[in-house]
Specification:
The structure holds 2 protein chains of 2 kinds. Chain A is of the alpha+beta class. Chain A is built from 3 helices and 10 strands, in the order ββαβββαβββββα. In chain A, strands 1, 2, 3, 4, 5, 6, 7, 8, 9 and 10 form a 10-stranded mixed sheet that branches. The mean pLDDT of chain A is 90. Chain B is built from 20 helices and 17 strands. In chain B, strand 8 and strand 9 form a beta hairpin. Chain B starts with a helix and ends with a helix. In chain B, 46% of the residues are buried. Classes of the chains: A alpha+beta, B alpha+beta. Chain B: InterPro entries: CRISPR-assoc_prot_Csd1-typ.
Chain lengths: 233, 573
């Protein structure tokens, strides 16, 4: 039984902010979508615990331009205790991208306990993309920057686009651990979902646009899974 | 940006410009000299009287306590260095001084320097009393032992760097967001930078809402000590060095976010050689950001750049390929203790040359009194706009360095200022505005040269209408003997620029009845005015008369037509 299948989707939007961790308060966006943001878009369209996405490449159809926006935000987390927003005002700047479009090419990879063939999920994904269905609105980096999506229509990135992007956020590993408890999160397994305690670890990779494509190294996913599974075991 | 700063740190360190890790230039108010164990106090000094020295520095904030005790090694204010108390804060001074001594003892233990032992012995003796009485609690004190400034000692510098690394590390390991390597990461960055008078952290998580995944402080932006300290040291150097910084918007009364500071650098130092003269490329490229500071002409370096762009560039060292050097630019502001990056880009010098040429050519325009065409640095253009919108700064920077066409928003803001009657009468404000309009209108187009001054062959209806308004104003001025404080443009410019047909016919009729006969009667250049009127009206007739309304671009044409024609009259007079 085939356990992996490729999917491709075109996404675009008026604004995008793929925040760099080192400038995450006064936000500065990476110039190109990160693999974790691309995964988020795909999961918004279709996701089941039986598979996960591994981003293989992100094609830049439109780099967009950069612009600065200043917004009123709040300086504390929202919880069950209400507070006056006026007492917690914080103005924050963001260097965001405007008018961007990408092609996301990802591999759907079945979890070990999945019994159905991968093409069942792949076809479901493709049908949802064609119909414009999504579980929640996909977004480009932050939720206020909604993304539009459609099947890839043959448009391809500019082959003259070559750029060294430096070290870029790859994804975040959620590591279950009893020794270091920073947060609680959901973990899916053969028995369903359960709450576990642990911490997160950001992974980075040297990013480079070559002929308009940002290639994502597959071995990084193995490193990430090893980290997530290592402490879990 | 931080990765480029880490690379820049390597360059500046190679050139001997960067202080050692965790060091910063400071000006002491008092110098305590220890000669054979006997103290001698020099001072008080002012900033001008004594040279700054490199001293250990670190980020320090909050109320000092046993848990928040952050002395600087070897040189600190008198509360730390000598235990001098502020009124009513004797206990605090004792605590701070204890912290200072503990740090010195640790440094002595690790370096084994005899001078440190000598200094410790003095600080623990009763001799310190007489010194303590003379200094203020917040005065910066420097120590010299046997004529030697201990902060310059290599062993002390190495100790301070290792000590900071130990102190600032988080207990968990992570991947560094700058170099990508796994290892211990910083809990907080070593120190702040000062952006236009405001202290701020390069990466700050000073509110609960800014953190994620249960992490605290700089663990949210995992950075190893080497990358973090190098990036902060390089940025601090760039912000302080005149050669690398320019204030684009600087208003001491404005909030931090309104002010904007540009820092720029090349990946390596490059000197240009032309006609037996040597030019520093970094200074030349930065001249586009120079603040003219009220002078009438462009800054000297900008004029040099303008001339040098017309000739091929050769490096002083033949091994250097200038075009492949990389230029970096960041625009920064401060926002409540946090640094804001308003703009960041890198570009090769080869690409910059073309872009700067297009930018300067695009804005070059005749002066309002018919002076030779001139170019302006970006702060002068921004000052003329009086808009305070960071996106306008970004537009101009991107046009200058990256070759991106300015957006239409720039045209709108410039036009709003241009039609203000006060601005129309203010030559110094009008010239950069006209340059901006020309830039937005002719950037990388054929007209870039012909629109430098009056283009009498141009038959764009909007341009012709602008010229016509200037001719009618001149007729009014001549008829009055140049005695008017306000002219018809004060009242009619804005309306005419938006809807020429509704106003120009009326103004023309009035001029024919009131102004032109008087000019003819009194011999004040009637033929010249008549010549211009005939020329413009014949072109307009061929273009089907006055346009009824003008869009933004056409209004810019109108403004330039008016400006050029007026400059032409004033040049002749």
């Amino acid at each position: 039984m085939e356990r992996t299948g490729m999917v491709t989707v075109k996404v675009w939007g008026e604004y995008a902010c793929f925040t760099r961790p080192e400038f995450k308060v006064e936000r500065v966006s990476y110039p190109v979508m990160t693999p974790s943001a691309a995964r988020g878009v795909l999961e918004a369209i279709f996701w089941k615990p039986e598979f996960h996405y591994e981003i293989r490449a992100i094609g830049v159809l439109n780099m967009g331009s950069e612009m600065v926006i200043l917004r009123n935000e709040i300086d504390r987390r929202q919880g069950s205790n209400p507070f006056f927003v006026e007492d917690a005002r914080q103005q924050r700047c963001s260097l965001v991208l405007k008018n961007v479009a990408y092609l996301i090419r990802a591999e759907m990879s079945l979890q070990p306990w999945a019994t159905d063939p991968v093409y069942k999920y792949r076809d479901q994904f493709n049908r949802r993309v064609e119909r414009g269905q999504c579980y929640h609105r996909p977004y480009l980096g932050t939720r206020e920057f909604a993304a539009f999506f459609a099947p890839a229509d043959g448009e391809s990135p500019d082959p003259a686009l070559n750029l060294d992007l430096g070290i870029m956020l790859f994804d975040i590993a959620f590591v279950a651990s009893k020794k270091r408890v920073d947060l609680e999160f959901m973990r899916h397994g053969p028995q369903g979902a359960r709450r576990v305690q642990g911490y997160t670890q950001a992974f980075f990779f040297p990013a480079r646009l070559e002929q308009g494509w940002l290639k994502v190294p597959p071995e990084k996913y193995q490193e990430l899974y090893r980290m997530e599974e290592g402490e879990n075991a | 940006m931080l990765r480029a700063l880490v690379d820049a740190a390597e360059r500046f360190r190679r050139e001997g410009e960067l202080p050692p890790t965790g060091y910063k230039p400071k000006v002491p108010k008092w110098i305590v000299n220890l000669e054979k164990g006997r103290p001698y106090l020099e001072g008080p000094y002012t900033q001008k009287e004594v040279r700054a020295f490199l001293a250990p520095d670190r980020q320090r904030s909050g109320t000092p306590s046993k848990k928040n005790l952050k002395p600087y090694l070897l040189s600190d204010d008198a509360r730390y260095a000598l235990g001098k108390a502020e009124p009513g804060k004797e206990e605090e001074a004792r605590l701070l001084h204890e912290g200072f001594l503990t740090l010195l003892e640790e440094a002595h233990r690790e370096t084994g320097l005899l001078e440190l032992a000598q200094l410790l012995a003095f600080l623990k003796s009763s001799d310190v009393e007489q010194i303590r009485e003379r200094v203020g609690p917040r005065d910066l004190v420097q120590f010299r032992v046997e004529g030697k400034n201990l902060t310059e000692d290599g062993a002390v510098q190495a100790f301070w760097s290792e000590y900071l690394a130990r102190e600032l590390m988080a207990k968990n390991r992570a991947y560094c967001s700058i170099c990508g390597k796994e290892g211990p990461v910083l809990r907080i960055l070593p120190r702040e930078v000062v952006v236009l008078g405001q202290k701020c952290q390069v990466s700050s998580f000073n509110r609960d809402a800014f953190t994620s995944f249960g992490k605290t402080q700089t663990e949210n932006a995992p950075t190893c000590f080497t990358c973090g300290s190098d990036a902060v040291d390089a940025l601090d150097y760039l912000i302080r060095a005149e050669r690398h910084r320019r204030a684009l918007v600087s208003n001491p009364e404005a909030s931090g976010l309104e002010n904007q500071l540009a820092v720029f650098w090349l990946d390596k130092k490059v000197e240009l050689s032309y006609e037996d003269q040597t030019y520093d490329l970094e200074t030349l490229l930065g001249s586009v950001l120079d603040n003219a500071g009220g002078q009438t002409g462009p800054p000297a370096e900008l004029s040099q750049l303008d001339s040098l762009l017309a000739v091929p560039w050769t490096a002083r060292t033949s091994a250097l390929n200038i075009d492949q050097s990389c230029f970096y630019l960041a625009v920064l502001s401060a926002n409540k203790g946090r640094m804001v990056v308003r703009e960041w880009f890198e570009a090769s010098v080869g690409r910059l040359r073309e872009n700067l040429r297009a930018f300067l050519d695009g804005q070059r325009i005749v002066g309002p009194l018919g002076e030779e065409p001139q170019v302006f640095p970006i702060p002068a253009l921004l000052d003329a706009l009086k808009a305070g919108d960071p996106n306008l700064t970004q537009d101009l920077l991107r046009a200058a360095y990256l070759g991106l066409r300015p957006r239409e928003g720039l045209l709108g803001v410039a036009l709003r200022r241009f039609r203000n009657p006060r601005v129309l009468q203010n030559h110094r404000a009008l010239h950069p505005l006209a340059a901006l309009l020309k830039l937005a209108l002719t950037y990388e187009r054929e007209e870039v040269k012909s629109m430098e001054r009056l283009d009498s062959g141009r038959n764009e209806p909007a341009y012709l209408c602008g010229r016509l308004l200037a001719v009618l104003e001149e007729a009014q001025q001549r008829a009055s003997g140049w005695s008017l404080n306000s002219t018809l443009t004060d009242r009619f410019y804005a309306a005419t620029a938006a809807a020429p047909a509704a106003n120009l016919a009326l103004l023309l009729a009035r001029a024919k009845v009131s102004h032109l006969p008087k000019i003819r009667r009194e011999g004040r250049g009637y033929r010249e005015i008549e010549g211009f009127l005939e020329e413009i009206l014949s072109y307009l007739d061929a273009q089907q008369g006055f346009p009824s309304i003008l869009n933004l671009k056409a209004q810019a044409e109108f403004a330039l037509g008016y400006y050029h024609q007026r400059a032409e009259f004033r040049r002749k007079s």
